[in-house]
Fold this protein.
Amino acid sequence: MSLEALGSPVSFLKEMLGPVPNEDVLQEYEVWWVEGQAISDDIDRRGTPWLRMFDRFGNRVDEILYPPDYWRLLKKGYEAGVVWRVFDENSLMPFLLLGYVTAFHDPGLNCPYTVSLSTAVPLDKYGASELKTRFMPPMLRKEGLPWQGATWMTEVKGGSDLGVAVETVAQPAGDRWLLTGEKYFASNVGAELAVVAARPEGLPRTVRGLALFLLPKYREDGSLNYTVRRLKDKTGTRSVPTGEVELQASEAFLLGPQEHGIYLILEVLNLSRVANSISAVALAQRAMADALSFAEQREAFGKPILEHPLLRTQFEERLRDLRRAFALAWEAGRLLDEVWREGYPYSDRYHLFRLVAHLSKYWTAEVGAMTAKWAMEVHGGLGVLKEYGVERWFREAMVAAIWEGTTHRHVLDGLEAMERKGAHRLLFAHLSEEAEDKEVKELSSRVEAHLGLSIEEKEGTAEPLFWNLAKFTAERLLRKLEAGQPG
Amino acid sequence: MSLEALGSPVSFLKEMLGPVPNEDVLQEYEVWWVEGQAISDDIDRRGTPWLRMFDRFGNRVDEILYPPDYWRLLKKGYEAGVVWRVFDENSLMPFLLLGYVTAFHDPGLNCPYTVSLSTAVPLDKYGASELKTRFMPPMLRKEGLPWQGATWMTEVKGGSDLGVAVETVAQPAGDRWLLTGEKYFASNVGAELAVVAARPEGLPRTVRGLALFLLPKYREDGSLNYTVRRLKDKTGTRSVPTGEVELQASEAFLLGPQEHGIYLILEVLNLSRVANSISAVALAQRAMADALSFAEQREAFGKPILEHPLLRTQFEERLRDLRRAFALAWEAGRLLDEVWREGYPYSDRYHLFRLVAHLSKYWTAEVGAMTAKWAMEVHGGLGVLKEYGVERWFREAMVAAIWEGTTHRHVLDGLEAMERKGAHRLLFAHLSEEAEDKEVKELSSRVEAHLGLSIEEKEGTAEPLFWNLAKFTAERLLRKLEAGQPG
Amino acid sequence: MSLEALGSPVSFLKEMLGPVPNEDVLQEYEVWWVEGQAISDDIDRRGTPWLRMFDRFGNRVDEILYPPDYWRLLKKGYEAGVVWRVFDENSLMPFLLLGYVTAFHDPGLNCPYTVSLSTAVPLDKYGASELKTRFMPPMLRKEGLPWQGATWMTEVKGGSDLGVAVETVAQPAGDRWLLTGEKYFASNVGAELAVVAARPEGLPRTVRGLALFLLPKYREDGSLNYTVRRLKDKTGTRSVPTGEVELQASEAFLLGPQEHGIYLILEVLNLSRVANSISAVALAQRAMADALSFAEQREAFGKPILEHPLLRTQFEERLRDLRRAFALAWEAGRLLDEVWREGYPYSDRYHLFRLVAHLSKYWTAEVGAMTAKWAMEVHGGLGVLKEYGVERWFREAMVAAIWEGTTHRHVLDGLEAMERKGAHRLLFAHLSEEAEDKEVKELSSRVEAHLGLSIEEKEGTAEPLFWNLAKFTAERLLRKLEAGQPG
Amino acid sequence: MSLEALGSPVSFLKEMLGPVPNEDVLQEYEVWWVEGQAISDDIDRRGTPWLRMFDRFGNRVDEILYPPDYWRLLKKGYEAGVVWRVFDENSLMPFLLLGYVTAFHDPGLNCPYTVSLSTAVPLDKYGASELKTRFMPPMLRKEGLPWQGATWMTEVKGGSDLGVAVETVAQPAGDRWLLTGEKYFASNVGAELAVVAARPEGLPRTVRGLALFLLPKYREDGSLNYTVRRLKDKTGTRSVPTGEVELQASEAFLLGPQEHGIYLILEVLNLSRVANSISAVALAQRAMADALSFAEQREAFGKPILEHPLLRTQFEERLRDLRRAFALAWEAGRLLDEVWREGYPYSDRYHLFRLVAHLSKYWTAEVGAMTAKWAMEVHGGLGVLKEYGVERWFREAMVAAIWEGTTHRHVLDGLEAMERKGAHRLLFAHLSEEAEDKEVKELSSRVEAHLGLSIEEKEGTAEPLFWNLAKFTAERLLRKLEAGQPG
């Protein structure tokens, strides 16, 4: 591949994937980012925006004081079709491709797009028809800023063990429910609609007791349906406002059958995890591109530092990792594109997808963070100055690494998918085209042996296994991509 | 070792080293940090301070507007003896031990102490007697804030290739020199004295053309001897002001014979690198301590997350790495304590020290950064919030990783020490007590083979070798420490 | 008087008042401010502090993240006796004198002291004995930081028309009450105790329906008794945290008989208004001192600008205004010192005090703001730079002008005191020592004529009358002071 | 007039002036400000932007990091014709009218427009033809952002006494000059062209020794012609970057004959002063409009506070002052529009203009500041919160009051115009249409008497005289306007 492609997400997508749908849209969107980057850099530089809680007359308004540029920036991706094209084309590809271009320039901005889609999808799949009639059109608006979505699960006690941590209670009230509780990490907190996890009154404090609700920002009379306690002061992803939300008898609508609530919640999370992987890869590409452009120009000992053998080796190894990570994340995307319309009970294809998604979320986060760290080192002292923004990519990368479940979560959930659904067998079959595949056989035996360990040992030593499985999968998928590539 | 010791740098020092000199001083200093930490956190939170360039009457003053608390904080380490005890006790140990306690709470604050010492040492070793008479007493003051030092080498073209990058010119003027040029990363920029690299007029643009000068902040008439162009807006180490300095015929005094200038410069850097290693280890201890205190209290799935096997394994492996890194950094310190009074030409002991220092700077920086990253992950979403300061340790760690030479520098300089001085042979002899040491033999052959490669290959593939050498050295040194440890 | 005294609040107090009680304490406190000023400047420069709502473990803590220096600064005034001496000496003088020295350096810092006293006084006068036993000792602690108080009346609908605007409801619960509502301008929001206005359930929506309650920050079990929604981002008085408070069944204790609630509330406000006047005068002195020190050194057209006749005239006129304002504020203080132990029904002396307090709050606020504005102008371009802090005094002055009731409030309330209580007649008698006092007679006729106007006209044209009355009173009081002054 | 007009600068202009030229352009520009205001508010809220001094490769760039929105905002006024229309229509009216609309929304933004015009005018009047050919076209560009201008006179020793304070020296170098020195208040510091005061080498240290030079930002080879030391951290006018400029042999071109330098400098200042007056009046209108919109909606005691007689009276009096100030500023503008093409020696019309300009700058600054202060008071506690931006108008107003000469300057310069040029007689003739004008006669005698005083007395007591003269002139001019107004 050409090094030049590193500086352009669309070129990189094409080099890796061959022809892509809507290429003209992607190109135009990438060109816009010449202007958009300056906006994004500014949003990052200025830190968390203000939340104006009251207007001058004492009315609660909870308005987020981003500069006007932010809204211009945000609108572009929506208009390009990051959400509406998914429904127009009945495919996640526009979302994934546009998301990649977005995340190359601003990984945090991919969050609003993702959670908007993650709101529209369950609404479309599980919403009563009057809900869809009321809420889908403004979400699928093709011009101007559409209604945005948001997905709020986590509460103050944490996001891993939702069954216990969700304390928000839902009380039935005619055709709707009244929700009372607090959401502690409410991303895209200015959204007009959110899907939220809550526990219908009386149900048990386990994941089985959870249901998914659609929560509008405003009641039908125009009043605020909930309040925002504050915005979080995050080190990264400042292009998405994350807040704490206080629900007090806030009106909401049940999505799907209550007893399938946890499945709906997991479907939402799975979509986010794939988007997160895609973002992490785009971020890694970006960090490498910045490092490269610096190393090509900065001189030491009589030549550009890129021509020094040690740096050159590092660069090539990281480039291979980037390509592997791309292949892995993209496979997660492609599989999701096959299964996203499924519901409980799920097909084997879905279980395969789940394992790939866990491997991908886990491994791409690591590649993203390590590439960003390396880009700082390549810049030397400039790498820790706020002035140049190189350090931004690491801040962004760490949010990607932690959001949607940290390392631990994905290793353990991946383990569970292997144990309960035999997902590793589905994976090996997926990766291997020949009957005799020695590498696959070896790894397969290792996995099977691992699954037979005591729970203490199995979990305690799972990470190296999972790491190898991810890297192996990524390498295999990359070779497939390379085999299918033009030129 | 006890997990409790993780929360206390003095306890950890004692567990690792056995009895330490001036233990009461260290204990008292650690106790002070209960108050000091709140100051340090505040300094970090508020970001880069203002530089007041002019007073109300138009006089240039270049005053750094830290809050009063900063000066209280800074004074404590000086009063405890981080500089003066080195000369009183003719040993670097007080500096290293107090520096460890400092860096556990605020890695950046160890910088002013280090550069003050790095100024006093060459002044003491190489300064003319009237310079020592004039400048040593205020630097060794035992009460109140002493005069501080600073070490300014890097210019705008970079810090690796000093021979070419230093454009500051020195012109002789009687008993002193007049320096004109700019220093681009001037740490501890408010110091009363600095040692700076400059090129006496007419000398060649190589490292041989450089000399080391002592540069006071004020001229004898009280006027400013140079100006500060601005403070750098760094992501970490906000407890030390880093600025850009403009020298315009600034008065300075030559240290040592001009033709040994580059050796003096490297002696200064070597001291800083050891201090940097010590800081990186202390930082790693701190990040682990914070992760531990969180993991012991945060619950998921019915028990503290520390009791989950996967997290437990990670914790134990990182703890081993911390202990290895400690052993390596401390050996660098101990060796420096033997050789710091040496001058050119240097003994074999000095060359051994140099290699250990490169290995240590290289590897401890990595352990520091990776431990800090892990501590963020353990905290989940809280890890990326500015509110809790966990993310601070990574910011600090990256400065440690980049300052005093990045990875590339240390790998290549270490290689040079092996090639030119056979420092690897000195190292293996140092590590091995038996004639037959299979591991050492194997590694030794690998190093020798590597040194025979073409320059392209030798440099291009040096990093894995260097990594292994560092880890091996660290593990061996740790075993020695463990063997010598009480109970 | 000497111009030098302008730079020292204690010297100015002595020049104006003659010997003052506890002079040694005042002197020592003023000396401390050499250090304190740097802290205060830093607090101002850094803006509104963070509010940390939750600790790392998800417990609500509502901790205000001032730097440690803030607490050192705050403690000094308390230790000097700004509250405890009032009860030890049974006199407000220590509060007023120490407050003047405080406000000269930091007008905002006088707020915590004032509201602490304004909490202790009604507790002492009206609290049940078990409340006093429990809460007075920590408020009167002589060493370390005592418990602080706060006075929270205003809600989101405004602070003038409390009868209607207070929506906080109190429900009886055994020996205490449960308060539910919100306080919108809660000064000194970190205080351990507050006195708050609330409406016992069922009482009418008028001032008669209000009662005063004592509200501890923590319940007896150590849990938070209310939450802080956020801190206000104020342009001035950053040395006192002002927040919004959410009361949800917060435990509180009734002070005094419910039906006298509004009197208790007004007593609290009256004390604050006097303190506010004193602060405004100290601020005016400070702004003049800064302007003077600049004008003495800055040169234009061959001489210090202070020697230019136009500036000189301005300076002298402002100095006279400062002295007038001092005399007026101090009389308000002296009268309050006579009547602060009174309760409803009040004596004529109290009504006289009330009118003088309204005149003083009104006029000193204006003098403070205009002097601060003038000090900016004297500094020319430097006056609008944040670097030099001259602009701070205006920011502070505007808070003084607006807090405790704006101009409108004091003019109208002063009018009411004249109409209902004949307070103007008490005032004229107070000011005049001779039977035949032509000026008094004229002004008296003018006031009486004004009181006979229609309500539209009376209110609409009240301000020039009130202004003249204030200035006249101030001038008379100044002459009295001057007559009694030493030397 | 209707109260509604207060909320619209174009409506107010029309009410006061009758039909205005280019009304459609003004209307369109005002409509744009619905979006522009959000940008302006954001620029104000975020404070001083960053100055990026170097790019990643160590090249000095001195780039001001405003957000992209800023440039969009800035461009609008230029495109509407704030500069190019002046030359197209050979009239200052477009500049004054568009400037009024600008300043209503953002008084600071009127500065770049003003200094750009103040650069183009002397270039056009005095520049050599090759300079005009080179520089006028980019300054008069009608689409996109044109080249901007700037006017830098003040140095660190102050702006009043330029004859002594200007230390910048100009050395001849062929067809150009080399300037060395520092400019301390360099407004619109990012401009592509500046006019600067400097002293040709060897000339005396008086105003006669000064000349005016045209200074491009870049040399013909594209390199920076000077550096920016830093941006000033101002409390107001954040929509214009003000910096300190370091000139080191910076290339510049002499404008006009050297010996007329001081006249050219004063012509530049006179234009700025008129623009400043216009801005101050627009600001006063804006502050009143905000106060009004609040007072109409905020209720106390059962009715909107605007209906309370005391507030109503204040409002009406301030409205009258606003209208007077408008009439005065507009007359200064109209007179300047007659004389701006004049050069030394000047006509009587020019001297009349000068006196009116001094009166106008002096009095409108005061009306602007006091109206802004009053608007804060009307808002009560909300007036000192940063959240609502009411406090912004005062911050802006104080810059207007201090820029282009403080009070003292205008009183004394006005006095000089009366003494040396008999400008008061020209003024009285201008204001009075009848032979017998008692008020004019009285004031005239008072002025004449004043001019006969000793210099000490004349200057020391000049302010009340000047105040009265300004108010009288304003009132007379307002009556003229009112007489000529439609309906």
